[in-house]
Each structure stands twice: as structure tokens, then as C-alpha cells.
Amino acid sequence: MVVQQGKPFTMWGTASAGDTITLAVDWNISPVQVVADVSGRWKGQVPVPEVKPGDFSAHTITVSCKKESLTLSNILIGEVWLCSGQSNMDMELKPALPWLRGVLDYEKEIAAAAYPAIRLINIENNFKKTPQENAKGTWLVCSPQTAGDFSGVAYFYGRELLQKLQVPIGLVVSSVGGSACQAWTSREALESDPEVKAKYLTPYDLSPQAQESLDSIKTLEKLFEVLARPTLLYNAMIHPLKDLSVRGFLWYQGESNKKDGSAYTRLCTAMVEGWRKDFNQGDLPFYYVQVTPYNWEEKDSTATYYAKLREAQDAMLQVKNTGMAVTMNIGEVNDIHPRNKKDVGLRLAKIALAKNYAQPEVVYLGPKFREYKVRGKKVMVSFLPQSLGTGLTTSDGQKPRHFYLAGEDKIFYPAEASIVKDQVLLSSEKVKKPVAVRYAFTNYPMTNFGNKEGLPAMPFRTDTWEE
Fold it and tell me: 107, 90 in Cβ contact below 8 A?
């Protein structure tokens, strides 16, 4: 496994009440001793140093009690990230089933995945009504033989950090396809916000499902319904990890909450704050992936409920120590599982490198709306300076797509858009007096507009009109 550098490493377990347990690590001279309490539980911490770039030394941890001793070997010290969410986080490099698709170029990527300093553990899928102490999983060393089973997003993220930081990378993947955000949130966190409690927790508590035995869940249809129930995945797959030292969290989820709109901001905020409280390591970074353009098999080019979920994700950036990987140019409108997981992982890594790893030269933002000014029939849109990179451009040499203008009638029409230095000039023959601008504010706009670093612009709207 990989142990988080620069933070205490916690070990816990059971023994006979009153027994002394010795925790010895080869990077410290003095072992740590703890005593099992009256219920037989024990917990202890050992200090962990910072590692220097290029230090991939293997270490050992020995836990002993009376005549019993257990030694864990091949332990690396580096950076550990917890990666969670639903199927797009879960999606492996290789096709999970013969009729499914793996990530782009998975054969080539897997064959080249000889990175023994990357270690990954998949937490076994489970759901419980009460918080659990333990979860199951097996640490794997990254190689062409094992990498196919790695989360694509986590792998590309970890590989980029390894190559840029030159320290071991540990990836803890705790994700379940089809799962909703409320399932990953603790009861305490759901109760902390009255609006969140009223929407997600109270209806469940008052429903027949709350009394239902989880052992009765036998069908796939029933399983997917369970994956939307509050707290169940948190109890089984997050709570057991709370004593693990990590650098931060990665999150790729939202599809199962697609029609929640602004409520998602409050829900996800409650989840994050709950995790941070549980892990008790300060305001741990929370970096997440914007849901990609997808038509939901409705073929309605004017639908906006998915755009409103992205807007709710954007609002999450107001929470301290967060960042969002924008994906408006790498989705697949006919596939909820787009194959390009490499750019997703790399965009998450750019955020971490810039915000956590003191590499301010890394551009991690695409163009983000700042303001607009109406000049007669035309509108000039400007963007935050730090999001411009080395300049605005389009990926295909064409004019920017998916800009819209509306007048006082609140009807949006496609706008003619052109890049003028660091701004975009908009006009529409059908809008004589523009009062509102929207960009990529529909369910599945595949965009071509971004900065020269290849990062797409963030969708936005200047109105608050309800359809």
C-alpha cells in the first residue's frame, strides 16, 4: 500500500482487553505501544515523515501482541487520494464486460502501465443501515497485469501526479455505479442542513423502504433503487475509511441526481463537510468532475435540467478548497460513459498540482465568465483573467458554438460569436435589444471554445429565469 506522507498513520484492531499492542515501523526508531480497552478495541498512531522526490523505498510495518506478530511489507510513503462517485469513477481501463467499452486506447494504456509506485485498492461494494468499522479490499501494485482493473480516472490522475511529483501515489477507490449523492452522505451530515434533511432524509425515514431488510435486495432493479437511499453507501464504504490519512478527495458523480438542480449544491456540500469532519484532517481538498454532455436518450436539444445540475456543481466552487474539472468538450452525447477518461484525470491533476503541490505555473482553469456589456445590438463577454491561459481559441478553427442571446421576451436564439482578443463578441439578427446571455446551457452541447491550453470554457447564464 501507500501511506500518506507528513501525517500520522493510524492503525486499529481488536485484542484481548488490557493487552499491549506494539506498532513498529522501519522508518521510526521507537515503536508505539497501545493498550486494548475493556471492549478489546485498540487504536494507535505512528508519525510519518515527508518523502523526497525520487524516494520509492519499500518499508515494513510490524504489529505484535504477546506471541502474535504480523508484518506488512512493500509499504511506500507518498500521496494518498480517496476517489469516489458513481459509474464514471468506477469505469475501469479495460471493458468491464465483453459488450462494454473500455477507455480510449485501453490496450495501449494497459500495456504501458508499468508504474510500481502507483498502488490502488478497490473498496468492495456494500451498503448498510448503520456505520461500519471495516471495509474489504486488496491493494494492487500497478502493472500491465493489474492496471486493467483500475479506475480510468483514478489511474490517469495518479500517473500524472507520479510523473510530476516523483513520489509514490496511493489511490483508494470507493465508488458504485448508479449511486446517488445522498447515499454517500452520513445521517449527521444530512441532518445538518434543514433543506437537505427535508428533501432527502425525512421522506426516506417515513417510507416503507426504511424498514425493509437489505437482505431482501435481490433484483438489479431493486439494487438501483437502494443506491439512491440516504447513508447506505457512506455507512459501508466511507465511514470505515475515516481513520485513513489522505491528501484529499476526488469525486465523479451527479448523473443519478440529474434533476435535482440547485438542491444538489446543498446536498454535495453537506456530504463534503461531513467527510471532512469524519476524517478530521482539516478542510481536505475536494476536486470533482462536471457531468459531461449527454442527451438522456430524449434528443431534446433545448432541455436544460442537466445544465442546471452543472450550474449546481459550479456553485460548489464557493465551498473552501474545491475545484472542478470541466468536461464540455470530451463527452459523448449518446453514451453516459464517455471513453475519454485520460483528459478527466489530467484535468483533476492540474487542479491538484496548482492548488496543493505548489506548481502555480500549471493552468487548470478554462475560460470562466466574468461580465457582459451590451453595445446596441451586440454583446461583449469577458472572462476572469486567471482563466484565460495564453489566450482564447476554438479547438476546430471554427467560431465558438453554443452562445445564445435573449431579449425582454425571454426567448433565446443562437448567437453569432467571434473571439476579439480576450473577449467574445455576440450578435443575433433575431435579438435587437439583448438583455441576457447563455453559453452551453443545455443538456448536451459539445463545445469547441476554450483557452489555448485546451481547457474548455465553463457554461454560464446571466439570467435567473425559470422555463
Answer: no
